[in-house]
Write a structure and sequence with these properties.
Blueprint (H helix, E strand, L loop, with lengths): L1 H61 L4 E8 L8 E9 L5 E5 L10 H5 L2 E3 L1 E2 L4 E7 L5 E9 L2 E12 L13 H12 L4 E8 L12 E10 L9 E11 L6 E7 L3
Antiparallel strand pairs: 1-2, 2-6, 3-4, 3-7, 5-6, 7-8, 9-10, 10-11, 11-12
């Protein structure tokens, strides 16, 4: 009788363990299904946000920004105080366009327009087309150009206004400004003794770009009288100009004062 009771207890315990195992397995399946559902919803949300972000990006990229496509200055090089025409082509909408010739001006500038301002306002000549005519600066030199289209400014290394006196480019160019000055001195003062040559800072009122403009002081001895300069030791000044970033140096002007 006692043995039979123990058998019944063991059978009851086995049934409970089996039921517990079945319940645990069912709970795991529900957990897995919930995780899959949550993951799917999360992926859909991420895809939805990605779609929304893509729509915003397309909208932003669809906005056309103003850009300067081309700058044309004619003629260029131009002789001092002679006529020139500036044309600008833009892409996109621009409320106004002006060009700035950096370094133009100063109290000694012969052309009054450039004594007042270094910028030139252009007029609309059709969709994306702007133009203006003006008198070139009276001081020779190389002037970097900035184009302002609305509130945005554009500049490129090749955008240069070159103002050269007649015959300037006919001179033999040199690699350095000092060599150009020595060549000019030898041509201007034959028979004179060169005693010193030194580079000086551009004058305070001279706003031209020092990359393209240099001032030199030359000291020499003149052993004979002449119609302009007496004999004796003389101080002379030369301005050398470089024909753009990759160009050669040539002397543009010289005199007894800078």
């Amino acid at each position: 009788m006692e043995e039979t009771s123990w058998k019944r207890v063991l059978v009851f315990i086995s049934v409970l363990l089996a039921l517990a195992t079945l319940g645990l397995m069912a709970g795991c399946e529900r957990s897995v299904r919930n995780q899959e559902t949550d993951t799917g919803e999360s992926l859909q949300d991420d895809e939805g946000r990605a779609d929304e972000s893509g729509e915003d990006q397309e909208t932003e990229e669809g906005v056309e920004e103003t850009d300067v496509v081309d700058l044309e200055i004619s003629p260029n090089p131009v002789e001092p105080s002679s006529g020139l025409t500036v044309r600008v082509r833009t892409k996109g909408q621009a409320s106004s366009v002006e060009v700035v010739f950096r370094g133009v001006g100063g109290s000694a500038e012969p052309v009054e327009q450039w004594r007042r301002s270094s910028s030139l306002s252009l007029r609309s000549a059709g969709p994306g087309e702007w133009s203006a005519s003006a008198v070139a600066p009276g001081h020779g030199g190389v002037y970097p150009v900035t184009v302002k289209a609305g509130d945005v400014a554009f500049s490129r290394p090749g955008w240069l206004l070159k103002v050269y006196p007649r015959g300037f480019l006919g001179q033999q160019g040199t690699e350095s400004a000092a060599e150009a000055v020595k060549a000019a001195f030898g041509k201007d003062f034959k028979g004179c003794e060169l005693r010193g040559i030194s580079e000086k800072p551009l004058l305070e009122d001279d706003k031209r770009d020092p990359r393209f403009h240099k001032l030199f002081m030359v000291v020499f001895f003149k052993p004979f009288e002449g119609p302009v300069l007496p004999s004796g030791e003389i101080t002379y000044f030369y301005y050398a100009v470089k024909d753009g970033p990759e160009g050669s140096w040539r002397v543009m002007s010289g005199g007894t004062g800078p």
